[in-house]
Amino acid sequence: MKCCIVTLGCQMNQSDSERIRSVIEGMGYILTDVEQEADLIGVVACSVRQKAIDKVYSKIEKWNQWKNERPLITFVSGCILPSDEVKFLKLFDLLFRMNELPDLPTMVQQCGVATAFSVQNTLNDLEREDERTDFWQVKPTYSSRFEAYVPIQNGCDKFCSFCAVPYTRGREVSRASGDILAEVGTLIERDVKSITLLGQNVNSYGLDKPGEEPSFAELLKEVGELGKRSGKEFWVYFTSPHPRDMTRDVIEAISQYDCLAKQIHLPVQSGDEKMLLRMNRNHSVEAYKQIVADIRELLPTATLFTDIIVGFSGETDEQLEQSAQLMEEVGFNMAYIARYSPRVGARAARWEDDVPAKVKSERLVKLTEVLKRGSLAHNQKMVGKTYRVLVERADKRIEGALAARTEGKLPVRILKAPEELIGTFQNVKIVSVVELSLAGDLVEAGVL
What we know:
Blueprint: E1 2-7, H1 11-26, E2 30-31, E3 40-46, H2 50-66, E4 73-79, H3 82-89, E5 94-95, H4 104-109, H5 111-122, E6 147-151, E7 153-154, H6 165-169, E8 173-174, H7 177-189, E9 194-198, H8 216-230, E10 235-239, H9 248-256, E11 263-265, H10 273-278, H11 285-298, E12 303-310, H12 317-330, E13 334-339, H13 357-380, E14 386-394, E15 402-406, E16 411-414, E17 425-434, E18 437-442
Parallel strand pairs: 1-2, 1-3, 3-4, 4-5, 6-9, 9-10, 11-12, 12-13, 16-18
Antiparallel strand pairs: 7-8, 14-15, 14-17, 15-16, 17-18
């Protein structure tokens, strides 16, 4: 028997897929990437983006046609809005939330009963008092030998007006710190080189369990101590934090340990105060700038990434200009800029989507140009210097080249290098740069 899992969306969904894979392999299925070969086929979906949901409908339409030719069981899980869940129940054989993962073998064996079970669960939304977290006990089957994702928290209590995550993932729940540290420790023993701590709001870790679990800063220190005792080289990242909960002690913790990577992804979404209020971000532009100042002071080599939305409901040209000015002032190394699109369930879906598509595209181009200028100015200062990089894969465009990233997650093309270096740290001298990426030559071991 074979199973195919299609994963859409963010790193959290990828982490969920690794646990789903473990359960399915434990049932005796062999994993395949070829959908046509599968007896059990499913998708880890993402309701946060309409494009990802459209892909789910495209997949299930094709899979259901295959049922006319051969036996096939289909399932769906992941980050799904209740409204999408109801629709999916009519299309898929099984629908389960991640907290139901330990029950998946029974669901597959009793397909009709499992569907009815999921229908009942769908009727209960965010206020369930019996929220299960035992799915975190399922050991993941990691998809990479040198990179790993470790969930530390699930759900969101922020309710940004543009975002559907609180309705897809539920309220914030922190994973037991002992389990987190045990998983990180195992990954260190396996010589994993890059570990990313995952959550919708990682820096609110522990706030739902005061006195029971450490704060996020304290958790980072415990991870840092694991790294210090191990004597091994690896980088630990986290995503995504919220500016509202980004405290100076988190930045101080990162500064104290070599294994805590000097890279911060801090979504701002807008550089305009009124837009931030409309987005229900619960932080000001000035507060965001203070966090940036703390990062520049305590982590002078850190790279800074962000997320920005253009064309949000009611956004004016002047407010867009405020975002551009913030980008100029901060000098982000990377910004994931998205055109606003309403998501059913989010509060802003009830508001008029009054910025024309053409204007949204123009605003995206404008901010992208600002990003490119800042990135190029930063990258040009790196020419002639040597940096430690993690080699990730063969370069897709140039034969004989490898793709790597610095500790700050800046992409580097190594111009001539053997593929056996994939998954290792190397020293690379930067020889040329363009906007958003660098190129360099390998440096002989011991030569800096």
